[in-house]
Amino acid sequence: MLFEKWDEYFEKKKGILADHEAMILRKKPVLKENHVLEISVKNGVEINVFKKLEEEIVSYLRKELRNSKILISHVLAEKVEEENLYTDMDKFNDMAKRNPVLLKLKDRLGLDPDY
User: In the prediction, which pLDDT does 81 show?
Assistant: First the structure.
């Protein structure tokens, strides 16, 4: 029911919100202990946007769900660094990690990813 109300709020505000605000509301919160919803944000800009929306969202959810204990918090998401793939062999090995059948196909067809 909580997540349905979250989506309902987003649908009501979708045409009114700026793109960066809508981006925050598209994220699905995680329900933690003691009626706390947690939103993952990527950077300081998203934190500021979230803080602008927080009071209105909490008020809406509390009213709709008849639960005055609902709180929303944010957590800064960990940045995952991606490895840059420059050579064809690096690209092939990365794809083969995700799909090992490619190694068998490469051997069976006698292909060389560097060529």
Answer: 67
